[in-house]
Amino acid sequence: MREGDMLIFMSPGGERRSAERLADLLVERNASISVNGDCFSACALYVALGAPRVEVPEGAIVLFHSDTAMWIRAKVDHPDRFSEADRAEIERAHSAQIRILQRQGISPEILSCIARAIGPRYAEMRRTPPAPLGSMSTHDVRLSIPTDFDFVWLSPAVLEHFGARNVDVRWSLNEGGRQSYPSYTGRRIAWVDTVEQCQ
User: Fold this and answer.
1) Would you tell me which of 9, 21, 106, 192 could form a disulfide with 163, CB atoms 3.0–4.6 Å apart?
2) Residue 48 in contact with residue 167, Cβ under 8 Å?
3) Burial of 29 (0-12, 13-18, 19+ CB in 10 A)
4) Cα separation of 196 and 70, whole Å?
5) CB-based contacts of 161: which residues, under 8 Å, 6+ apart?
6) Is-contact 178 129, C-beta < 8 A?
7) Which helix (H) or strand (E) holds 36?
């Protein structure tokens, strides 16, 4: 990646630390991104919100989930379920997420907005073998957290409210696409058009 490059980017998400490193590299190289299709999960939370400039052309979509805000809440609600190493990784990941947001002038409150919109409902917690690389679990703790929605879409007005001025979604997912996208992907999407919906 060279100084000032534009990356054509498509990703369903992935491993958190890799996404953190990519966000840092994009800033270091002053590189921009154009989303070609989907940018979900770690792509949305770290790469899109962390890059200097992101263009989301018509038909492309950026979808968020609660990630570190969810784990912080789980740690507070169920401290006995997490080892010291688990708690340390949750704090590290949350601090990294806040650092990436604040570097772009984005309020970390956007994470709470996403978490409230997605609607976590703690239903089951159990010990499992070590999770595969890139999963939401750390070490041997697995949380099963059914939610009202799989992902959250944030309107330009909501992104602007939280200071995410680096993400240009004016052309994102035209009206026809918005109606058909959930059935096409099988994803339950919360469409957050106003800040009040974050409550």
Assistant:
1) 106
2) yes
3) middle
4) 20
5) 195
6) no
7) strand 32-40
Structure tokens at 179: 């109606």
How far apart (Å, rounded) are the C-alpha atoms in residues 197 and 199? Answer: 5
Report the pLDDT averaged over residues 28-52.
Answer: 93
52-109 per-position pLDDT tens digit: 999 999 989 999 987 787 778 888 877 877 788 888 888 888 999 999 999 999 999 9
| Coil/strand/helix, residue 151 | strand
pTM here is 0.84
Distance CA(74)–CA(108), nearest Å, equals 18
What pLDDT, on a 0 to 100 scale, did the predictor assign at position 136?
44
Helix (H, G, I), strand (E, B), or coil: what is residue 195? helix
CB atoms within 10 A of CB 43: 24
Q: What's the mean pLDDT when you consider all of the chain?
A: 83
pLDDT in tens, 143-176: 556 678 889 999 999 999 999 999 998 888 887 8
Spatial distance between the Cα atoms of 139 and 127, rounded to a whole number of angstroms = 10
Q: How far is C-alpha 1 from the geometric centre of its chain's CA atoms?
A: 23
Phi and psi torsions of 171, nearest 5°? -105, 10
